Amino acid sequence: MKRSHHQWLARARAAGLGLTAGLTFAMASSAQAPPGAIDSVASVRGTYDTWLLSPLGPLPDESILWLSGQPANRIDVGLAADADIDALEWISPTEIWFSVKDWTTVPFRRTRIAVHPADIMSWDGAAYNRVFNATLCGIAPGANADAVAALPNPFFGGTNVYISFDTTQLIQSQTVFDDEMAIFNTGNGCTLLGKTAPAGIDRRLDLNAFSWVRRWGATFDLLGYGGFDTWGLVGNQLAAPAILLQYRLQGGAWEGARLDPAVGFLPRGELEDVSVQASGMFYDGFETADTSRWSATSP
Questions:
Q1: Angle at the Cα of 193 (from 188 to 195), degrees rounded to 5?
Q2: Rounded CA gap, 68 and 57, in Å?
Q3: How many Cβ atoms from other residues are within 10 Å of residue 66's Cβ?
């Protein structure tokens, strides 16, 4: 039976995991968000499954399109032309996480290392690091991570890593469906903390894009931005490969994502993954000193 994020959190508490695997991404704050200030997208970075026509012209599938209030930008992480990024998370201006659809290699020191399609790699503009090692953690050779999201863990340190796979996976005796996200933590190695799925997703759909945003100054109030590789209904919203949807954790409601007018429109094409910043002053709820995750706009 599929469990909602709320049900999973209750289960995690009972199992002694406390807030580690579920809502470990918020701490109490007395600040309140200005009405509507956080419910629109001020910046979105997206990657697509094939070359497509973007505001910048042709966009390769190993590149990332960045739309914001500034002129459209293309981000490259140094991959070969035959690579295809199908999962990404913008951590800071100097760190991007990504995963690839097929095996590839990247330079590492004086050699090259193989990258598994379920690995999560980081890139700082000059060098690569492996954030999540799929082979070391016992992930099946044929697995592919098609969405990755991250939130800082203020209680136990490290970062909670949310990974969705393109097919059902058996991980440490837990079945993780392709509409769910497995949860790991950068401080706990391969330990699977649990799994979660936004409410209202038909099991036949594949969650292939997801990004978390915390509502400004609000406790446990998260917005998720998701995409799907097929047409269908999510809640009462139409899902399609080129549509970005917003999910409100409190209440489990889905609606169409609202992009700031300055952002423009997403190109037509299958959106593989996104990393979103919302309008408002703070990206991570102001509970950490990581100013790189603050948004570029203020209420």
A1: 145
A2: 17
A3: 18
Tokens of 278: 């919302």
Looking at residue 284, its amino acid is: D
pLDDT, residue 216, reads 61
Tokens of 202: 């038909």
Determine contact, residues 161/128, Cβ cutoff 8 Å.
Answer: no
Q: Residue 54: how many CB atoms within 10 A of its CB?
A: 20
Q: What is the pLDDT of residues 218-274, one digit of tens each?
A: 556 789 999 999 999 999 999 999 999 999 988 899 999 999 998 999 999 999 999
**This prediction's pTM:** 0.82
The two structure tokens encoding residue 70:
């500034």
pLDDT at residue 31 above 50?
Answer: no
Q: Please, which residues bridge with residue 53 across strands?
A: 58
> Which residue reads 């919203």 in tokens?
237
Using CB atoms within 10 Å of the CB of residue 231, give its burial: 0 to 12 exposed, 13 to 18 middle, 19+ buried. Answer: exposed
Cα 133 → chain centroid: 17
Residue type, position 132, single letter: F
Beta carbons of 262 and 198 less than 8 angstroms apart: no
Spatial CB neighbours of 173, under 8 Å, sequence gap ≥ 6: none
The answer, yes or no, to whether residue 121 has pLDDT greater than 60, is yes
In angstroms, rounded to a whole number, what is the distance separating the alpha carbons of residues 69 and 42? 7
Cβ atoms 84, 100 nearer than 8 A:
yes
Task: Judge contact between 279 and 295, C-beta under 8 A.
Answer: yes
